[in-house]
Amino acid sequence: MKTIKSMVLKMLGFFAVLTLLTGVLYPALITGISNAVFPWQARGSILVGEDGTKYGSALVAQPFSDEKYLWGRVMNIDTETFTDKDGNPLVYGWASNKSPAGEELEAMIARRVADIRASQPEKDGEPIPVDLVTCSGSGLDPEISPAAAEFQVSRIAAARNISEDEVRSVIQQYTTGRTFGLFGEPSVNVLKVNLTLDGIKWKELS
User: Fold this and answer.
1) I want to staple 45 with a disulfide (CB 3.0 to 4.6 A). Which of 58, 63, 125, 151 is the partner?
2) CB under 8 Å to 145, separation ≥6 — which residues?
3) Strand pairing partners for 48?
């Protein structure tokens, strides 16, 4: 009996120590380092206007469907399953998890292709960049490839009655290259482009 009691006490003590280390000290340490080294990212990467309006996160996608905007990747989000304590919907994003050989994924891509073709009939026959018709791993990718952005230049220019070079100039401002010149691919931030096209002056919320 004494041995069992001793073992239980040791287990509880071990559990308490691990809880303190992994549930309190480690998260506090990582949060502190993140806020010190990457303060903007740690606080949500929010883009805020001169009047204080928060337009969203530069690292989380938003849906754009108006022809005057740059369209991002397909978003796979759920706004119905979960709510907060006040009953407001919580947004969750994830990959589609659909088989590349499945009819359901094929139908989804076909619908997206049809929408893009309808919005830009002048590009009928041109190949559509794959990231415009497929979902990313997170389902909330905020960036697209330069090729996907270039594909949309003529539509945006026509919808806004501006030159294609003006649209390209804005896109170029928010095009980033490979990390350290080696990792990843060049990309264009959709939200930053669209805010700038609307003439909204914003800054990164620190």
Assistant:
1) 58
2) 129, 131, 185, 186, 187, 188
3) 54, 203
Q: Do 38 and 45 touch, CB atoms closer than 8 A?
A: no
Tens digit of pLDDT for each residue in 154-187? Answer: 999 999 999 999 999 999 999 988 877 777 788 9
Report the phi/psi class of residue 80: left, alpha or beta, with left for phi > 0 and alpha for psi in -120 to 50.
Answer: alpha
User: What is the model's pTM?
Assistant: 0.74
Q: Say whether 47 sits in a helix, a strand or coil.
A: strand
| Residue in 201, 148, 155, 200 with CA at minimum distance from that of residue 175 | 148
Q: Is the pLDDT of residue 28 over 90?
A: no
- What does the alpha-carbon distance between residue 55 and residue 191 come to, in Å, rounded to a whole number? 9
Give the whole-angstrom CA distance, residue 49 versus residue 147: 28
Percent of the chain with pLDDT over 90: 25
Q: For 95-150, what is each residue's pLDDT tens digit?
A: 656 666 667 777 778 888 888 888 888 888 889 998 888 877 677 788 999 999 99
Residues 6+ apart with CB under 8 A from 202: 47, 48, 49, 50, 55, 192, 195
* Neighbour order of strands in the sheet with 202-204: 54-57, 46-49, 202-204
Q: Summarize the chain as % helix, strand, coil (round to 5).
A: 45, 15, 40
* Residue 58 CB neighbours (<10 A): 22
